[in-house]
Amino acid sequence: MPMILNVPGASPGDIARGLAAAQAVFAKAGVTPMQAAEALLKRDGLATLGFPDGGEPSADEFAAADAFDVAKKLRSRRAARAGLMCPRKHICA
Description:
Layout: H1 12-29, H2 33-45, H3 59-73, H4 77-81, H5 89-92
């Protein structure tokens, strides 16, 4: 499934750079965008329900969800080069 980035007012070049930056974050974390999205759902969505299936996210799932968080914040290569605040050094370093 292709990634889609929607940033109102962004140029096609900005969108392309944002997608490239997000892909780089996922690659560095060793996950696909879909794996990251699924981990985010498990971490955030099911947490509000108290993990009804009985299983909390694994460390790998937490890392994948963190990658999604970081990728979501990136909007351009410029933002990445500027050292956008990153809560997870193992993904951004």
